[in-house]
């Protein structure tokens, strides 16, 4: 197991994946909560069966996988559906995260999660890095990346912890409004600090 776990979070479109890749380039292992969210609903998993029973067969694609855009459209317009889904998935995702973190090696590992605080995953980490950009930039980046309706992105943003609250709870901050070179430089600084934090 890694000596320390650093939680990485930020709103949709803030650039958490780019930050994760920059840390991985230094040899640090990362566990991505979004990846685990996909693992627990793969075909054959009990969660996928429960979702299909709850929302009906149209929630599956013809090849039997989860139709994510359809599910996303439902849960961000129906609060009860969102609550039901989170009650099903969050415990399963957290169990996967604990298992993957226990297997991680190195001075420290990352737990990358958009809902680090909202799901109690902050209890799995020793320190928290918040990746931050203004909300207008979040909206522009997420809309461009996902090809999603800006209104839907705004609903997702509204469902996440507020930017102000995230910033208040951060141990470290990465302003990701600059270039990829700026980001990599900041990650290198943080990496040195985290090595010291892990006693390396």
Secondary-structure blueprint of this entry?
Elements: E1 4-9, H1 16-24, E2 29-32, H2 33-39, H3 46-55, H4 68-75, H5 79-103, E3 108-112, E4 127-132, H6 135-146, H7 150-159, H8 163-168, E5 172-175, H9 180-197
Parallel strand pairs: 1-3, 1-4, 2-3, 4-5
Main traits of this protein?
200 residues, alpha/beta, 9 helices
Can you offer a commentary on this structure?
This protein is 52% helix and 12% strand. The chain is of the alpha/beta class and 200 residues long. α2 packs across α5 and α6 crosses α7. 26% of the residues are buried.
Largest beta sheet: what is the strand line-up?
A: 2-3-1-4-5
Give average pLDDT, whole number: 92
Shape: globular
End-to-end distance: 15 Å
Structural class: alpha/beta
Summarize the structure.
The longest helix is centred in the middle third of the chain and has 25 residues, at 79-103. With 200 residues, this protein is an alpha/beta fold.
């Amino acid at each position: 197991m890694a000596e320390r776990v650093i939680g990485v979070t930020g709103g949709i479109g803030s650039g958490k994946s780019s930050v994760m890749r920059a840390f991985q380039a230094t040899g640090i292992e990362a566990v991505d909560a979004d990846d685990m969210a996909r693992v627990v609903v793969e075909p054959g998993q009990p969660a996928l069966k429960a979702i299909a029973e709850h929302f009906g067969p149209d929630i599956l694609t013809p090849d039997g996988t989860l139709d994510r855009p359809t599910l996303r459209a439902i849960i961000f317009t129906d609060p009860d559906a969102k609550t039901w889904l989170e009650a099903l998935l969050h415990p399963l995702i957290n169990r996967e995260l604990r298992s993957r973190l226990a297997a991680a090696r190195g001075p420290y590992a990352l737990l990358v999660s958009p809902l680090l605080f909202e799901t109690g995953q902050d209890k799995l980490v020793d320190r928290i890095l918040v990746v931050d950009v203004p909300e207008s930039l979040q909206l522009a980046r997420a809309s461009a990346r996902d090809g999603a309706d800006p209104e839907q992105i705004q609903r997702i943003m509204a469902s996440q912890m507020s930017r102000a609250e995230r910033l208040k709870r951060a141990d470290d901050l990465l302003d990701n409004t600059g270039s990829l070179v700026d980001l990599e430089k900041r990650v290198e600084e943080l990496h040195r600090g985290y090595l010291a934090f892990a006693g390396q």
